[in-house]
Amino acid sequence: METVWTASIPKRVEDIDISLDGSRIIVAGSDMLGSVVFLDAADNKKQPEILPQAEGVTSVAFFGKGFVCGGDDGSVSLWKTVKMGSPTRKSIEHDDLVSSIAVSNGLLLSASYDKTIKLWTDAPHSQTTFNGHLNAVQHVRWVPKSDNEFVSCSTDGSSKLWDVRTARETQSLSSSEALYSCDISTHSSPLLALCGAGSFVRVYDLRKTDEVLFNHAVTSSRPNRVVRFSVDGESLAVGNDNGRLTIYHHNKVWEEKNQYHHQNSIRSIIWDPTRKGRLYTGSWDKNVSCHLIH
Length: 294
Fold this sequence. Notes:
Blueprint: E1 2-8, E2 12-18, E3 24-30, E4 34-40, E5 49-53, E6 57-63, E7 66-71, E8 75-79, E9 89-92, E10 98-104, E11 107-112, E12 117-120, E13 128-130, E14 137-142, E15 149-154, E16 158-163, E17 168-174, E18 179-185, E19 191-196, E20 200-205, E21 212-217, E22 224-229, E23 235-240, E24 244-251, E25 253-261, E26 266-271, E27 278-283, E28 287-292
Antiparallel strand pairs: 1-28, 2-3, 3-4, 4-5, 6-7, 7-8, 8-9, 10-11, 11-12, 12-13, 14-15, 15-16, 16-17, 18-19, 19-20, 20-21, 22-23, 23-24, 24-25, 26-27, 27-28
Protein name: Peroxin-7
InterPro entries: PEX7 (IPR044536), WD40/YVTN_repeat-like_dom_sf (IPR015943), WD40_PAC1 (IPR020472), WD40_repeat_dom_sf (IPR036322), WD40_rpt (IPR001680)
Keywords: Cytoplasm, Peroxisome, Protein transport, Repeat, Transport, WD repeat
C-alpha cells in the first residue's frame, strides 16, 4: 500500500465523500464546532476550501450539484450548490445526532442515534421514517443500483435490509456485538459486510445470511469502526479505533493484504469511483489520506 498524500483538517474528521467524477473530496469535521472542507483529489497542495459551521458536522455527502450534512444537533442541512455559504434548507427532525447519510439518485437517507432512519428528497421535510432498531443507528447504505432497498446497522447488534416502497424491513440479521458500519456489494453476488465491537469484520451472502462467508477478528480493545467494499467488489477496507486500516482482497477466499496506521480512530473510508485501487481515509487525527493499493 502506498500513501499518495495526506491533508490536514482543522477538526476531527467524522466523514468523507467523493464526487462522482473523482475530482473533489468533501470532509465533515467536528469538535466543539464543526466545518465542511473541500479538497482537490488530484492536487493535494491546493488550498482547502473551509466552510465553518455552528454545530458539529457528523456526516456529509455530495447531493446533486450540491451537498448535504448531518449535524450533532439532529439536523439535516442541504446546499443546492457547493459555492453557497449558507444552506438552502436546514431541518431538525431527528431527536439526536445524525450518524450517517447516504444518497442515491435524488433520494437521501439519514440515520440517527434516536433509533430512526428518515427518507428525504430536496423537500423541506422528510418523507418517511423507518422504525425498528432498538438502539442508536450507526450506519446506513443504499443497495447499489437500487433506489428501493437500503441496509442499516445499530449498536443493538442488528443489521436490517429495508424496502422503501413499504417502509418495512425485509431481512434482519442479529449479532451479539454492537454494529458500527455496514456496506453492500452487488458486483458478482449480493454481499453484506459488517463490523463493530470485538474488532471483527464479517461478510455474508444476502441470499443466505445464516452462513458467514468471511469472519476475521483481531485482538484489540478497540472496535472496528468502518467497512467499505471497493467499487469492483474485489477488496474490502476496514478502519478501526486504533487508527489501523486493513485491506482484504478476494481471490476465492478473503485474504488480508495491506495495513496502514493513522494516529487516531479512522471514522470514514471512501473508494475512488474513477481510479481502481485508490481510496481515501478520514481520521480523528485530523487528517485525510489518499492511498493506492497495489
